[in-house]
Amino acid sequence: MKLVLIKPNIGRMEHSLYVDEGRMEPLQIGVLAALTPPDIEVAFYDDRMETVRYDISADLVAITVETFTARRAYEISAEYRSRGVPVILGGMHVKLIPEEAAQYADSIYIGDAESLWANVMEDARQGCLKPVYRAGTGKPQSGIGTRRDIFKGKGYLPLTLLQFSRGCCFDCEFCATSVYFNKTHSFRDIKELVSEIEAQDRKFLFFVDDNIVANPEAAKKLFKELTPLKLKWVSQASIDMTQDRELMELMVRSGCLGHVIGFESIDAGNLLAMKKAPNINQQNNYHDQIAILRDYGLQTWAAFTLGHDFDTRESVQRTLEFALKNKFTFAAFNILMPYPGTPLYKRLQQEERLLFGGKWWLHPEYRFNYAAFSPRNMTPDELTAACFEARKTFNGVGSIVRRAFEPKTNMRSLVRFMVYASYNPLFRKEVFKKQGMRFGLK
Asked: What is the CATH code of the structural domain delimited by 2-134?
């Protein structure tokens, strides 16, 4: 039996295939490959940088689907099915809107792969694939590592992706992760994770956890085990970690260089409305929390979502000024996106504020980084333009040079400076390449 695993692209720029230069190893694909019985041949195509082959012999094609890649995933599925090859779709988007995904595949998989993937493989062998496999969510990769040989030769960034935990216990209105995991947070056996780290060659790691410090005591145990390994690592974390100095000490000692942190907004009204619990009690515009991050030398990727009900064109500009003033290592100025199944999506739907017929991810006129709803205090086009201008300014050459000389973070060590100098030009390039991209290839 032969299984084909596929990571779809977002889409294309006008007249050309978009190649993602900042692409990282798709961890979920490596986990699926590890869960697959060893007697099954596995092929893997990454649509972000290589041509998907449809002319090969295959018994099953499995495609991971995110909302931004749904249109392209459905195109790929249609090509294989037209050749008589069965297709199963899984991933976050499939759980968020299974009734849609089911229209584009022979089978859909809802939930974490660990519990039922063996059943899928056996059913595929017998030629009796079920229309739906409904798994739960829970402890990630119990007794399972990640198969990394399938990543070789594909030009990924030189860092290894792993996971300690899945999910997040917070209930932010806009967050698809909270819906997928039902506001739960579970984590791996630390010894199994350490064994996986030791089995690979790199010392620069990215833990893809939605919030690696969601359970502070579990995180402390992890950091203690990581310390002897002499690693450098980054992850995603909530700003409330700054309230626990023991956690911060152990984190830095274990080799942490920094985190993606969801600041989301600098407006207290927005934070309350979106139920961003870790941020609601921020004082003085995050002044104290940012000072603590700097004291520990942590490089911060500040993630903002813009377009909330208290936002205006002026508040987007103030957010940009806030990011520039604090000389964040990286910053993302993301338009607020109504993901299907989230409380935000349902509210905007009731208020008749969704654009593109609600299914922006499939609409042929929608473009990447465009507003998909009508904000309260500006037009959709104004929100799109304001966010693009913020990204363009923050990632401008002058800004990159000025922020490089932040002494407590980017200039704190040679390693930190090299991280800054390596990735900022890459992110600058991606800002202009992705803006306005079509979804899908057709």
From this structure: 3.40.50.280
